[in-house]
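Fold it.
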Amino acid sequence: MPGLGNANIAFTVPAAGYTGVTRMRVREVYASSNVTPCAQFTYGEIEDFSIVISPSCPAAYELWLGNSDDWNSPGNWCGGVPTDR
C-alpha cells in the first residue's frame, strides 16, 4: 500500500464473539505485511476504535440492540429499523 491511501482489509469476528459496542485495536507497521501482535517494530502506529458488532438476523426479524438511545439508528436494530411503530 502506498504511504498515503486507503486499504480494505477483511477480518472475521468469531461466531461466539461479543455483540454491541466494543473496542477494536488496529496496528499498522511500515514496510511489513505480516504484522504479529507482540513483535517490536521501528515504525508504525496503533489506533483504537469504538465499533458496534451486530448479530446476523433474518430480514423480517426486528430486535432492539440498544447500542445507544437513538431509536431511529440502524445500529440499534438487528434486521433494520421498524417502520410499523
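The two ends are 47 Å apart (CA to CA).
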